[in-house]
Design goal:
With 52 residues, the chain is mostly helical. The protein has one domain. The protein has 3 helices and no strands. The radius of gyration is 12 Å and the shape is flat. It starts with a helix and ends with a helix. The relative contact order is 0.13. The mean pLDDT is 87.
């Protein structure tokens, strides 16, 4: 399974959890990524789009 498929599955899982639990998990992760700029996020984006 490639990284793009894994990312889509994880986002779908977060969407289901978001619908069940009234805490906006995806929004919290987005705020974390925007504020902290973690290295793992940049690596995932580079792997998905094959950037160098």
């Amino acid at each position: 399974m490639n990284i793009r498929t894994k990312s889509i599955l994880i986002l779908c899982l977060f969407g289901i959890i978001d619908a069940v639990i009234p805490i906006p998990i995806i929004g919290l992760i987005l705020i974390y990524v925007i504020v902290q700029k973690p290295l793992w996020f940049a690596e995932i984006v580079q792997e998905i789009y094959h950037l160098e």
